[in-house]
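Subject: Holin

B.,
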Amino acid sequence: MAPDNRPTQVRRPWRTMVRSVFIGAVSLLPLLPQIADAANIDEIPAVAAILAVTAAVSRVLTLPAVEEWLQAYIPWLSADPYQGQHRKERS
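Prediction pasted inline below.
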């Protein structure tokens, strides 16, 4: 069986999306009251909608077709392909 050289973000998109949303949510939790005041948001559903959009964008970025497009046109934004330890030593 040939090794799967796709980045882990593409091989496990749901894990990547959940991790990104979790990191974003946890990092913003202490600032949510100030963000809501600054944006004149008085309702929790607006904050939930922002997190949902973040989750959707994160999920789209893990699609293989999007990853290929990023590698072709914006390589600095694409995920690094997995490179096993034994391959690193040969380089």
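Residues 68 and 78 are 8 Å apart (CA to CA).

T.
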